[in-house]
Amino acid sequence: ADILVSELLGSFSDNELSPECLDGAQRLMKSDGLSVPCQYTSYLAPISSRKLYNNVATQPSDSSHEDPFHLGYVVRMQCVNLLDKVKSCFTFHHPNHDSVIDNTRHISLQFTSDTESVLHGFAGYFDAQLYRDVYISTHPDTHSPDMFSWFPMFFPIKQPQLVRQGEKIVIDFWRVVEPTKVWYEWALSEPVTQPIHNSRGVTYWIGLFS
Predict the structure, then answer these.
(1) Among the four residues 88, 140, 151, 203, which has the most C-beta atoms within 10 Å?
(2) Residues assigned a catalytic role
(3) pTM of the full predicted structure?
């Protein structure tokens, strides 16, 4: 194929397994073939939102193994206060010509709270380069006009954390890939250390088919 066109982007760019699907399909492309999109990046920002936190806290659990705070949620960001600027998280390129393709990721992001507030979790956004200078974005600074196909994601923390103005906020975020599934893990490490959310994909994961 000369061109591979896909609509596999999720609200956090890769959360609907676009990397795995497109990596598998690129064997059908010519060596100089084009992928649309050709790259995409996820973003995170710390937020304060009692409304979103309460919505998560009141979610019913189907079993003792499910905890609503170990899930990512696609939401409309209303009644939300961003505590710092949005920062890039993970980037994927297509076609992927790496000799060994590995879509696992880990990043440690540092933010500085611009006000005294309560941290309830992190907002997730994305942007994507479709072709040359054609982009789509949910990033607050570059949001595509009149685009309503994707809402941001919310990654909650179970224990809300008071942060002072100028205080450092550090989150570690993982994208874990195993033969049968993919999942995210996240953990606050500053101003206090909290347990890893969704460790080993205990509640939230996306299945892979071989």
Answers:
(1) 203
(2) 7, 16
(3) 0.95
Q: How far apart are CA 195 and CA 186, in angstroms?
A: 9
Q: What is the CA radius of gyration of the chain?
A: 18
- Provide the 8-state DSSP code for 54: H
41-85, pLDDT tens digit by residue? Answer: 999 999 999 999 999 999 876 655 589 999 999 999 989 999 999
Average pLDDT over residues 16-38: 95
The pair phi, psi for residue 80, each rounded to 5°, is -125, 140
Question: Does pLDDT of 210 surpass 80?
Answer: no
Residues 142 and 159: their CA atoms lie apart, in Å, by 31
Say how far apart CA 113 and CA 37 lie, in whole Å.
Answer: 34
User: Quick one: which of 8, 20, 23 has its CA closest to 179?
Assistant: 20
Mean pLDDT of 112-128: 98
Q: Give the H/E segment covering residue 117.
A: strand 117-131
Contacts for 196 with CB less than 8 Å, ≥ 6 apart: 185, 186, 187
Residue where the block lists tokens 């492309």: 29
